[in-house]
Amino acid sequence: MPAARGPQWRTLVGLLVLLAGGPARAEVPPDFAGRLPLELRGWKRPTRPQVYDQKTLYDYIDGGAELYLSYGFQRALAFLYQQGADREIKVDVFDMGSSHNAFGIFAHGRERDEAVIGQGSEYAGGLLTFWKDRYFVSVLGYPETAETRAVVHALGQAVAAAVPRTGPLPPLVALLPKPHRVPGSVRFFRHHLWLTSTVFVAHDNLLGIGPGVPAVLARYADAGRQHVLVVVEHADAAHAEAARRTFAARYLGDPAAGVAKVKEQWAGIRRIERRLVVVLAAPGRTTVEQALAAGLEPGAGK
């Protein structure tokens, strides 16, 4: 989780919350409290969950709330199952406002793609995470045992079953080329800090990523040659070109540059109409040039 930050960061996050995914879809939320059992295999929970909104989320996960808020968090339901005095399973259901945001927050921390529950899931060390439609779900049973593992998955299945439909992926994800893409490496975000958490570029926002300028990235590996591919979508070609020149000048060292060596690795940038294609952390010029020349999946210029 990111470290806790000050008032200026919270003001910025507030703007991201307003703009990240547009208005939340008007609908009757699933009855999670009614669908989750009050008791399961000796594990019991209170009748009502704890509820957190954009103002109170810091009370629940201070130091990590900024990540959720930057992805358009709306509210969370927290269910606590207990067995005895010191055994707990926590079920947290986060309404992220849209399926794009729910995928983004799930993908941010995953290391592999299992797709066992919901539209994508991962389990490790007693923690199950998954997303379905506009919801991101975390189920934690600690310490992990064969029993808690079974209950964690059963509770996850119950939450997923309460969500009546699936939601679409962010359209930008479909533009990432599939050959040699590392499974589970796709990320979607609207704040440049989440690019930095994968591969450091700069403390400043050189690519213009923001609430109305989404981005995706993925890792690629081919015969030992690895690189990170980033796609940023601006509102129009003029804004994309301005961001391209900023990145080229400040990261590549020349506003006209397309490929350059940065410290011990290579990087490059290309504009395709209103989209930027960026290659980072590559082992050599040839890798960058080939990745940039490959472009995006069909329809990238639209």
Chart the SSEs and their pairings:
Elements: H1 7-19, H2 32-35, E1 39-40, E2 43-44, E3 50-53, H3 57-61, H4 65-70, E4 75-82, E5 88-95, H5 99-109, E6 120-124, E7 127-132, E8 135-142, H6 146-162, E9 187-189, H7 193-196, E10 215-222, E11 225-233, H8 237-252, E12 259-262, E13 265-272, E14 275-282, H9 285-294
Antiparallel strand pairs: 1-2, 3-4, 4-5, 5-8, 6-7, 7-8, 9-10, 10-11, 11-14, 12-13, 13-14
Low-confidence stretches: 1-5, 15-24
Succession of helices and strands: HHEEEHHEEHEEEHEHEEHEEEH
Number of domains: 2
Distance from N terminus to C terminus (CA atoms, Å) equals: 35 Å
- Figure out the total of helices: 9
Q: Give the helix/strand class.
A: alpha+beta
Q: Indicate the proportion of strand residues.
A: 25-35%
Query: What's the CATH architecture name of the largest domain?
Result: 3-Layer(aba) Sandwich
Strand order of the largest sheet: 3-4-5-8-7-6
Gyration radius, rounded: 21 Å
* Overall pLDDT metric: 89
Q: What does the main sheet amount to?
A: 6 strands, antiparallel
Global geometry? elongated
Helix percentage: 25-40%
CATH T-level fold name of the largest domain = Protein Transport Mog1p, Chain A
The CATH top-level class label of the largest domain: Alpha Beta
Number of strands: 14
Descriptive notes:
The chain has 302 residues and is α+β, with helices and mostly antiparallel strands. It folds into two domains: 7-162, Protein Transport Mog1p, Chain A (3-Layer(aba) Sandwich); 171-294, Phosphorylase Kinase, domain 1. The chain contains nine helices and 14 strands. It has a six-stranded antiparallel sheet, sandwiched between helices. A six-stranded antiparallel sheet has the order 9-10-11-14-13-12, with helices on both faces. Strand 6 (120-124) and strand 7 form a beta hairpin. The model is unreliable at 1-5 and 15-24 (pLDDT under 50).
